Amino acid sequence: MKRKFISILVILILVISALNTVCFAETSADYKQKSQDAKEKLEDKREARDKEKLEKYIDNRLEYTSDCIALALTLASEAKLSFLEALEAQAELDEK
Hints:
Elements: H1 2-24, H2 28-47, H3 51-95
Helix pairs in contact: 1-3
């Protein structure tokens, strides 16, 4: 039972690490470029206050959010599969 608990904790740590790597691992050059792009987008948003462009901006943000959620679900599915494989290997080890 203790081994299963430790396995679950390891899986959770790996999932969190994977999410951290995917979502937050950026080089400083990437960060600077994204920061510059964000500043430009903000300036564009200030200049273009018309409804159509703001609606497009909202749609883009919602699509990005959806992509992030899909990625998180995929990673969770991979973690589940990995955990099940570990359980299967543990059962095989216990049989021997």
